[in-house]
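Interim report, section 4.2 (structural modelling).
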Amino acid sequence: MGDNPLQKIMDPASISITGASNNFQKMGTIQLVNLLNSGYAGKVMPIHPREKTVLGRKAYPSVSDLPEAPELAVLVVPTPLVPEMLDAFGRIGTRHAVVITAGFGETGEDGRGLEREILRIARSHGIRFLGPNCLGILNTHQPLNITVAPILSFGGGLSLASQSGTYIAQTVGYLERNGITLGKAISVGNEADIDIVDCIEYLGDDGDTRAIGLYIEGVRDAAKFLECARKVSAGKPIVAQYVGGTEAGARSGSSHTGAMAGPDFVYDGLFAQAGVIRVNTIEEVYKYGWALACQPPPRGRRIAVLTNSGGPGSGIATTLDGAGLEVPEFSPGVQEKVSRFLPGHASPRNPVDLTFHMGMENMARNIPQVLFEAPEVDGVIIHGIMDTGFMELMYPSVKDYIPLAREDFLASMETPHLEPLLAMPEKYGKPLVISSFFDRSDHCIRVFHEHGIPCLDSPEKAAGAMGALHRYALVREKGLDRRTPSGRGPAPEEAQKVMAGVKGPAVDEFTAKSVLRAYGIPTAREILAKTAEEAFAAVRDLGWPVAVKACSPDIAHKTEANLVFLNVGDRAGLERACGAILAAGADILVARMIAGSREFMAGMSRHPGFPPCIMFGLGGVFAEAVKDFTIRLAPLSPADAFEMTGSLRAGALLGPFRGMGEADRGSLASLLVGLGNLALDFPSIKEIDLNPIIIENGRPCVADALMVIEQEERDGQQDT
Amino acid sequence: MGDNPLQKIMDPASISITGASNNFQKMGTIQLVNLLNSGYAGKVMPIHPREKTVLGRKAYPSVSDLPEAPELAVLVVPTPLVPEMLDAFGRIGTRHAVVITAGFGETGEDGRGLEREILRIARSHGIRFLGPNCLGILNTHQPLNITVAPILSFGGGLSLASQSGTYIAQTVGYLERNGITLGKAISVGNEADIDIVDCIEYLGDDGDTRAIGLYIEGVRDAAKFLECARKVSAGKPIVAQYVGGTEAGARSGSSHTGAMAGPDFVYDGLFAQAGVIRVNTIEEVYKYGWALACQPPPRGRRIAVLTNSGGPGSGIATTLDGAGLEVPEFSPGVQEKVSRFLPGHASPRNPVDLTFHMGMENMARNIPQVLFEAPEVDGVIIHGIMDTGFMELMYPSVKDYIPLAREDFLASMETPHLEPLLAMPEKYGKPLVISSFFDRSDHCIRVFHEHGIPCLDSPEKAAGAMGALHRYALVREKGLDRRTPSGRGPAPEEAQKVMAGVKGPAVDEFTAKSVLRAYGIPTAREILAKTAEEAFAAVRDLGWPVAVKACSPDIAHKTEANLVFLNVGDRAGLERACGAILAAGADILVARMIAGSREFMAGMSRHPGFPPCIMFGLGGVFAEAVKDFTIRLAPLSPADAFEMTGSLRAGALLGPFRGMGEADRGSLASLLVGLGNLALDFPSIKEIDLNPIIIENGRPCVADALMVIEQEERDGQQDT
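Predicted structure of the assembly:
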């Protein structure tokens, strides 16, 4: 990393803050309060035009009055003052800033102009900055806090970067209640300079950060995101929520930070390719992120579930199943060991249901010891450990009947010895997740919180957290950092030659396929004919039966125009087909009939801020109704492409299926890699649609191809 | 209802409890404590063999010593004592009981015998009882509490019935923190007598209950569940979690209560047909159930979202979109009215982002007033209302700098006038849901809790709760209580005649189709031939081209055996086909070729405890890979069947699609109704598989049919 600007921003030796005063109604004041109270050890220099001191610290009337250039400038001043303040800091030698002030790009054209202006000023001084329109930063390791909320706990392994300041600065109480301690947190605001990818890079290299949580409304440069995130995710889990995929989500997001949203499925592909664990709620960013920061990923899929009730056990088992994990029945040996600690009728099979009991030694120590030791167990979830929480709940009811004071009553419940359990995850290299409906009023929950054992407040969420750990295990297995796109030289000569002669918007099928073939993409052998006689001659070469199709850049919807004739088996049929096609003013494409009933599709589309998006999906006429497809970004590594072929819901079709042999996924993957290279070589190609791709004797063959060239004006012909 | 036994059980004039003592380590004691502390106004008579008083109440040495027959007997005694105790209560005239004691059906064969025994005893006395192996009941309206946890708040509208006692008795603290007040709650245990359907019936008629939450591991009689739940759901929302659909989930559940689990998709169908809102977590049962109990369902899909930050606004909008709701941009008129209360750059479009501000009048009163009044808004979600929660958080940081005591500081934040907002949902008949990361330490949150305004602890959950309200609006629209299955007389004579001659396990296609036709299910015209000559004669009747297939009960997999010849267009082809079929020892089925490229499938399967399960799905060779299908239970009402045809992911195929006309969903629905009737008429039919059903000129036609007859021994031939 070396020169990531966030190193200095997150760990500055000195800070000057402008916009703080002694008025607690001002946001800057709150931010200074939090900075001072965070325990920050560096020098703090408030700037205020009139006050001599601010919150008891000597204040300086202006930037030029500062005794030294602060390593970090924090600006919470009115919008119009930002350019001159930034310039002033640059002149005295400050090189890092956090611009909290809003009123820039998020407000419209004028604001965008002002944002360009401060970027220009910053660049002129070599200043790197966060914001504008951000809510500050948090580093509980340093410690350093420039947000509107206090730090409640210190030194956690989960770090955040967020395009919404709320999720950095407005959830501290919530996180504390849930036992989640942040390490570092960055509100990126409008990302005029430093963006969320810089944050991923910084947090990826940061020794204090063990998992990264992201809240994303849109990324500006998906290629840069992909390159960075896939390196980081190989060594450190990244969990992310993306919310820009709907019209209203995008409207809300972009009005806020001006970030660039795109269709949801494109982000699905980006995250999958980058090894980012996608989640759907901010709760999952926090809670699964915390689990990922604290617990090792499971080495396999076999999870042991220990509860004091069948209900939570079933909820956990069902959710684990949905997450691709298993709750296998234990071997007789493990069942026998577990049984020693079970009451009469309880089942040792997995889930283990201890039934309700106030003594905790079996649930919190003896049985977990058996489970962690068992080689057949890859991870453990426990529901039901508690002590004082239950007693607190009961005390008001029983106090009239017992001679004990509240404290003595609470103490009367045996406190489980949790130390052995707390040590098991690290000792055995297996994750432990706790499910509990109790909160921090329960002593056990507080102990778990303090020791980095994730406590989820429902059985299903505990299972979900284990699912996230499993997803990370799968990411790590992939070795994404070692994936490199296939080598790509200049565009093949044949393709260059053909493309040079192409006029848009639509490209005829014969031409499109010749370009595809130049990239090694298999198509049926086919011959272009101008007359029925030429077509008949072609059949002599290809053999009956043939497919006969109209070929013209002006006819994109051949099927709907009834100009596709499949399985033509004799001369009479061929002549009928040619007659119809010639009458429509098109050339005749005669192709060998491809034999196969499994149909897939592949395609390429472009989205702002993204490299070419390559799609693979279930094909045929009904593809658009079935909507079973996956996306990755070009250039594809062979491994990326191979994974795509395994990502369909209907993936079973590619295996041996109802008497059909296994499809050659390697050839399908090559096809996708080639499609990506083609798209990269010719940016003028706006859209490619290969549908169907028929599996013939196990190998893919493109039966139809549509290619659309970028034109200034949209003309509707790109619809397929 | 009239004679639902739960009326008396949930509201008894007197209770005798056996198993309570003065020892607080005993569960029965805890239950008596909670009964006494709940404020129960009726007579309580503990039974104890030795103690003179229990918890200060006079105790009776045995049942026969009681001064009167209690209306309700509660048994928490050791398992072997239950039969004699129940008998003793029966003899003195008690007619209702709750058997908390475990050790019955859930423990194995002996336990099942004992469970049958107590059922026999109960029936001999006319006793109706809950349990065994349950955790008691709760009625916060009476009030009455016989669980192991205290009542913390009273009189809520959400009532529960649960097959896990934990979800009745172990979550009170959790519910209190989340502002959820139960009305009534029933732990059903092993359901030896009273089952979860009785609970639905009781709660459906209960005036205190406004929404019903269910936790289900399996239902014993799905037909009874369906009949009851669809009546209840027409007037009162039911939200349910089912967890028995996976192997481990079923293992955990059944080991617990011995309930009957089944495949997940069957329960999906049952719940859809019954108008039950299915959720995947117990948190959703509670939180969405609470929203359903407190708020009216939205009249349309248009939700207004008001926040103090873009992040939560985007999360809410994206989640609403996924739930089938909309966040439409407001009309200029509404935008103008909203703008009056917005700071400079904030957007009035929807979501409305007020940006962070300590003053709450606009967020909590002025803008909601505009939104509730607007006819274009069907429901409102607000994120960001708070007061003391934020101040509590800040006080430790600012206390050194301000001269205010904690209370004065807290009071220094303006407390919003919430009364107008609290009244808006009822006044305008539109739902309000609050999203907040604050908890009950915030005064506003406490006020919302007390006034039945659901507060969810994340933006996405608030949107999810609104989604549940919307789902209930859709259920109510359907008028499920007015749906009746199509009238069904005796089985058609033709079907009876054919079925009388059928030997299993497999039924040949020609025979199967003749049965189908007797139920009005359209098939292609077809003729059975014994020789090629007969087949040729058949074609004279049917016309070229034809489908030629082997027809034999011994050949279930015709396609895989290469004995299906489609599109046979001439005599030579016909003879080739006949030759192959005759060589395989089969008859020749000659059928008119059905022309159409849209293929669906329908089927029937049987599951223990369920009426025949009718399936409709995407068809063709690849159906099993695509797995796009829906289930309902026979007998189907025409409306049920029609809904099925609209329930596929690939539902777009049935509309006008790529040049094909709209499919006749009414005819498809009739086909499904007929299939259900057929299955009901002939219980010996184990499985029916109609695949493909081809849409020809818009109407469905069954192209292939497989029917399997129940036999004592499974022989594998039922696989298709």
